[in-house]
Each structure stands twice: as structure tokens, then as C-alpha cells.
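Q: My labmate handed me this sequence with no annotations at all. I'd like to see what the chain might look like in three dimensions before we decide whether it's worth expressing. Could you predict it?
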Amino acid sequence: MLLDEIVRAQLRGEARGIPSICSAHAWVLRGALRVSESSPYRLIEPTCNQVNQFGGYTGMTPADFAAFARGLAQANQFPVGNVLLGGDHLGPSVWQQEAAETAMQKAAEMVRAYVRAGFVKLHLDCSMRLGDDPPGGLDPEIAARRMAQLAQAAETASEDTSALPRYVVGTEVPVPGGAQEPEAGVHVTKVEDTAETIELARAAFRGAGLESAWERVVALVVQPGVEFGDDFVIPYQPEKARDLSRFIEGQHLVYEAHSTDYQTRTALTDLVQDHFAILKVGPALTFAFREAIYALAMMEDELLPRAARSDVVHVLDEVMMRRTEYWRRYYRGSDEEQAAKRKFSFSDRIRYYWPDPQVQAALQTLLNNLNQKLLPLSLLSQFAPRQYNRIRRGELERTPEAIISDRLGEVLLDYDAACLPEQHRPFATKQPISK
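A: Here is what I predict for the chain of 435 residues:
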């Protein structure tokens, strides 16, 4: 099992990790599976909001998503057996307005559906207060017991004991919708809080008779001090996470880091070096997809008369203005500032609107228009200069699909380089981690 191998590698003192692609976006997943030369495996994780037994906002159940991901792998000649499926923030979040009993029943059924569909990595997150919980933050012991309840559901969901899931526990506490100001509310998790989370989780698993399942807990979610907002990125600073990094060296675990989007390759490498071996990335990929589409739309504007254009950029904004639920409470400022954020924010709330039928029709028109002839090199140089250079070197086809895929690949190559360094290089300054 790859996740076990990564933990063992870290225990041996090797800076090895894996990117976790948190997206249900077909183009993103297709692009990830095409960048196969830089990584032989892909870990793909939808969230409970995207995929659950009722369909989530993607309309897919766990079985649907598994078939979708594996179908994309086959279509792109990627080994299906090398696609690892995980579930992110699996818990009662979707039903947190309901009473605890009914919310947890639905969460348990969702977890069982994930396991039955072949998902091998489950991040269990019961940190949210439910409808009949007392006001204020949820008691950590209650959160741990609920998490163990979901682990118990997962353990009994499948008769195949050779494919029992690996677990990730804990949760970071992100600023809702992303940070509004640099370093606002973003703090490295304290060592004492990390130790408490591990002990509460261990006790809850054991209290539920899940000692063997606890042996398959591979990672703990913490906040290493990274975040992004509409137009800024808080970079990873290893010195601020030094104590947290050293603490995990005494555990048979690695860290899982969320919100690593837009970090540099050096920062990602430092994260893996510091035992943040599972790196979540999502908005940075859909942001890259959006960048590629906008670049192609600018080329279309130069090539076709107005009546024939897809007008995809304006269609997207029209749909976002008609359906404001995914961005209105996240984007602050004047009308002009909100308009800019809808298009260009790093938070990329636009990612929720690609499945809209009107947007899909415009996107298909864009691709059809630009596939009628080779994209002019002069326009590629103007609007997609990095892809232009690769085309000139004979490394890339001159098609809109290749432009999109290559832009996505640029993001993933940084993650792959950080997670699979040359010869799984040993830590530069650390001793091998003991069990």
C-alpha cells in the first residue's frame, strides 16, 4: 500500500510524500493523469460536499465518482491500479444543521459508501458542531468519539479484509472562505494541541474496539502556517513549524497539510522535508484551468467575429451573478472589486460554476472554434508564452486541449518534484525517524 510505504520512507529518514488532488473537475483530473512521467501514482480526493450518497453538488455518489476517475485513467492510458481514491473531510459537515443522531447516521452511511466504492484513504472529520450540540466550539472528546464511530462504520463496510482503509485524523481550522488579509487567523498548530489530538483519537479508537484500525492511521491534519486569499499567498516558513516538525518524529505518523495551493516548489519541498508528506491541492489547479481558458478566449476574440465567439468569460460571469451562493459571502469590497475577484481570485470560487450547462456549452464552443485550425504562434506568444516556448521546442501540440493540459501540468510538476525527489533524497539535517 503506497501510503504505508510513504510513512515507512519518512521513518527511514527519506523526504518522500504524495500530492492529494482535491477536485472533481474532469479537466483537472484528466490533466493530472496525463502528467504520468513525473509520478507513477495519483491520489484523488473529493470532499463530502462534492460526493456523497445523495450525490453532493457534483451529482455523483462515491460509486459514480470511482467509476468516473477510473474511466478517466483508462482513457488516458494511466494504470487504473495506480489511482488511489480518498475522501476528504468525511463526516457530518453536510448535515450539520441536523440533530447529531441523524447527522451521524448519514455520515456513517456515506463513509460505508466510500469504502464499498473502493476508496482507500479516509480523512475523518467530525470537528463541527451539530444541530443539537451546545453553543460554542465542539468538545474535542465528542469529536474524537464521533470520528471513531465513523471508523467503525468503515471497518464493517467491506468483506475484503485485504483492502481495509487507511485513515487520516484531525482537522485544520481554516479561515472560512480563505484568509481575508495576510496572516489573518493563520497560525501553526501548537505541539500540545497536536499531542492532544493524537491521544484523544487513539483513546476513541481503542474505546470503540478499533485497535487494529488505529494501526492504519497514517496521518494527522495540522496547520503548518500556509494559506492563500484573493490576491496573496502566505508562504511556508520552516522555522515557524520547526517544533511541530520535530514532534511528529516521535510518532508513527506523518502530517497532512491542507491549503498548500500556490506554494513554490521550494516551499513544497520544505514541507515534505518537515514530514508534511500529504500535500492537498485543489483551487490552484482549477485556477490554472481558468487561466488557460481565459488565454484561449483572448485568442478566440482575435480570430473570430463577435457573433461566432463562445463569449465564455462573460457567460461565466453571468451565471455567477445569477447564482451567487458560491461566492457572495466570500468576496468583499465594492461592485468593481467583487467583479475582479469573481474572475481572478486565488480562492477561485469560479470552480463551482464550470458544471453549469450554459458554461459547458460556451466552453465547448470555444474548443470547437479553436480546433478549426492551428493556433497562430503569434497569439500563443502573446497569451500563452510558456506553452508557446514548448511548442517551438516540439514538446507540445498546438491545440487548445494541449494548452489546458500543459498549464495544469505546470502546477502538478512542482508537487511531484517535491514529493518524489531524486533517489528519495535523505533529510539534509534530520536523523532517521524512530518508531
